């Protein structure tokens, strides 16, 4: 996700990230600092939504990152809905979580890793039969390099 | 209300104090508690009273009859009668009868089956046939089960109504103008309409429990890691779990036992011992008047206030009184982080889905859209194959995981997950089980919430916290509210400590066997179901 987001910045979004925001963005990559627009933790939801205007949601750009070719109608239809949900996500900014450790998942049990040994999958034919374009022994795709 | 030895004698009639609506067809004689279909089938096969083919035929006939209205299946197996015949052959040869022999099971279509299409309810996987069985499915086959088909769902499990399926909308058997809930709406409706005996679902944020409530069946969401996720199409891996549906607690328990256990193909699956759940049940025939004496039950206060339909809240309160009459000590318990769980859940689920669903790119399997270059092939295949809700969740997740936003969204949501885990731990140190509604309302109309994502997400408030904490929860029908031609069922949610499914099932079984005046068979099939 990080690398695609960097491309996003390099590619130049229709809105420009301000110099200090870019600094913020890269400093967050090293996870040392919280981006300015999300701190201080006491931010109320109302302040937050005012802040969220600093980083407008660009659905077309997001769709490009997620590799989904949206139609202009879809962009128009999705944008307000996604914005509504993202704003709703924002309520967590108002919660004091400073000393709380993040949980990756339910702490039900440690990993039960198996030995790292290769195993032969028996039903190889069925797996290859599911490939949409196949030319023995290759999976065929169109050209990978872009003209630009 | 509590009847000792009430196993087979039928009810004493409607309980006036319950506040729930009784439908007209629920006469005094039709209110006997549900019995285990699985054990009934086993008994009749062993005594040679019935043949497996007769049982299969009965269910298939009902399926054919009701399916045009309910639409719970995306695929019905062609091998049902053949497999049933094989079982009859084994019985004739006096071979050992495996625990689920002759039991017709529906499988949610996001669970892989090698001999049937597995689409996850998505057009991107239309006609896709996996090269392997999910571990849970393999275990069912080893137990002698007959897989009847693949049930409908919201695409990849993303939805609460089953309207988000890429193929069809499933109707609620209690009122075909209403949703069955979701995302495992097909499995819940199929069990409710007795199209199959039991069914598998999956539960990421309530996808087994909410449809169980809407359709008046029993739904079990096991502890995270109790059942292998191998072969379950991943939505949000830190939350996903395969769950069970049945028309009785006993059936749900037997099904869970069959699919649970460690699996080398899922590193998050637990090595915790799998008990014989049903053998731990308290017999209703010899039960004293207070069979649950001393059990501490906490009713979650945040789940009965604003935002919960009043009739739902009163049905749950009546269920709490029923537990008290069974000997439980019921007190209110507060989970302060409860409301934070909902946005935290949606951040985590959409973030994980944006990563998990990147595998559907049209290259190795699934539908491919021809394109000039690779990025267009990805983009067009995904645009063509995914429905609007899946697209939106992927985009939300992509946003939340973007550099610079990670700490603000994903990490914060994970911190909230810690809070939720802690508050459940505290509540469960003072209580044996916690109870709440399974959903803030009964089943609503098809189309009612389709265009308002936040309204639909809000309906998940009762269930998502349990997934964040990875705890087991059992939902069982406990009453009716007004609506539809015969009333709409309401589910009671019981939440337990990690790997304490046994206790939930034990309590659920006693609750179900002593609940008077309710029979959870929809009028649509009431006549064809032998009582």
UniProtKB/TrEMBL annotation, chain A:
<dbReference type="GO" id="GO:0006450">
    <property type="term" value="P:regulation of translational fidelity"/>
</dbReference>
<keyword id="KW-0067">ATP-binding</keyword>
<comment type="function">
    <text>Allows the formation of correctly charged Gln-tRNA(Gln) through the transamidation of misacylated Glu-tRNA(Gln) in chloroplasts and mitochondria. The reaction takes place in the presence of glutamine and ATP through an activated gamma-phospho-Glu-tRNA(Gln).</text>
</comment>
<protein>
    <recommendedName>
        <fullName>Glutamyl-tRNA(Gln) amidotransferase subunit C, chloroplastic/mitochondrial</fullName>
        <ecNumber>6.3.5.-</ecNumber>
    </recommendedName>
</protein>
<keyword id="KW-0808">Transferase</keyword>
<keyword id="KW-0547">Nucleotide-binding</keyword>
<keyword id="KW-0436">Ligase</keyword>
<comment type="subunit">
    <text>Subunit of the heterotrimeric GatCAB amidotransferase (AdT) complex, composed of A, B and C subunits.</text>
</comment>
<keyword id="KW-0496">Mitochondrion</keyword>
<dbReference type="GO" id="GO:0005524">
    <property type="term" value="F:ATP binding"/>
</dbReference>
<dbReference type="GO" id="GO:0050567">
    <property type="term" value="F:glutaminyl-tRNA synthase (glutamine-hydrolyzing) activity"/>
</dbReference>
<dbReference type="GO" id="GO:0030956">
    <property type="term" value="C:glutamyl-tRNA(Gln) amidotransferase complex"/>
</dbReference>
<dbReference type="InterPro" id="IPR036113">
    <property type="entry name" value="Asp/Glu-ADT_sf_sub_c"/>
</dbReference>
<comment type="similarity">
    <text>Belongs to the GatC family.</text>
</comment>
<dbReference type="GO" id="GO:0016740">
    <property type="term" value="F:transferase activity"/>
</dbReference>
<keyword id="KW-0648">Protein biosynthesis</keyword>
<dbReference type="GO" id="GO:0032543">
    <property type="term" value="P:mitochondrial translation"/>
</dbReference>
<dbReference type="InterPro" id="IPR003837">
    <property type="entry name" value="GatC"/>
</dbReference>
<dbReference type="GO" id="GO:0070681">
    <property type="term" value="P:glutaminyl-tRNAGln biosynthesis via transamidation"/>
</dbReference>
<dbReference type="Pfam" id="PF02686">
    <property type="entry name" value="GatC"/>
</dbReference>
<keyword id="KW-0934">Plastid</keyword>
<dbReference type="GO" id="GO:0005739">
    <property type="term" value="C:mitochondrion"/>
</dbReference>
TrEMBL record, chain B:
<dbReference type="InterPro" id="IPR036928">
    <property type="entry name" value="AS_sf"/>
</dbReference>
<dbReference type="GO" id="GO:0030956">
    <property type="term" value="C:glutamyl-tRNA(Gln) amidotransferase complex"/>
</dbReference>
<keyword id="KW-0496">Mitochondrion</keyword>
<dbReference type="GO" id="GO:0050567">
    <property type="term" value="F:glutaminyl-tRNA synthase (glutamine-hydrolyzing) activity"/>
</dbReference>
<keyword id="KW-0547">Nucleotide-binding</keyword>
<protein>
    <recommendedName>
        <fullName>Glutamyl-tRNA(Gln) amidotransferase subunit A, chloroplastic/mitochondrial</fullName>
        <ecNumber>6.3.5.7</ecNumber>
    </recommendedName>
</protein>
<dbReference type="GO" id="GO:0005524">
    <property type="term" value="F:ATP binding"/>
</dbReference>
<dbReference type="InterPro" id="IPR000120">
    <property type="entry name" value="Amidase"/>
</dbReference>
<dbReference type="InterPro" id="IPR020556">
    <property type="entry name" value="Amidase_CS"/>
</dbReference>
<dbReference type="GO" id="GO:0009570">
    <property type="term" value="C:chloroplast stroma"/>
</dbReference>
<keyword id="KW-0934">Plastid</keyword>
<dbReference type="InterPro" id="IPR004412">
    <property type="entry name" value="GatA"/>
</dbReference>
<feature type="active site" description="Charge relay system">
    <location>
        <position position="108"/>
    </location>
</feature>
<feature type="compositionally biased region" description="Polar residues">
    <location>
        <begin position="24"/>
        <end position="36"/>
    </location>
</feature>
<dbReference type="GO" id="GO:0032543">
    <property type="term" value="P:mitochondrial translation"/>
</dbReference>
<dbReference type="GO" id="GO:0016811">
    <property type="term" value="F:hydrolase activity, acting on carbon-nitrogen (but not peptide) bonds, in linear amides"/>
</dbReference>
<feature type="region of interest" description="Disordered">
    <location>
        <begin position="1"/>
        <end position="36"/>
    </location>
</feature>
<keyword id="KW-0150">Chloroplast</keyword>
<dbReference type="GO" id="GO:0070681">
    <property type="term" value="P:glutaminyl-tRNAGln biosynthesis via transamidation"/>
</dbReference>
<feature type="active site" description="Charge relay system">
    <location>
        <position position="183"/>
    </location>
</feature>
<dbReference type="GO" id="GO:0005739">
    <property type="term" value="C:mitochondrion"/>
</dbReference>
<dbReference type="Pfam" id="PF01425">
    <property type="entry name" value="Amidase"/>
</dbReference>
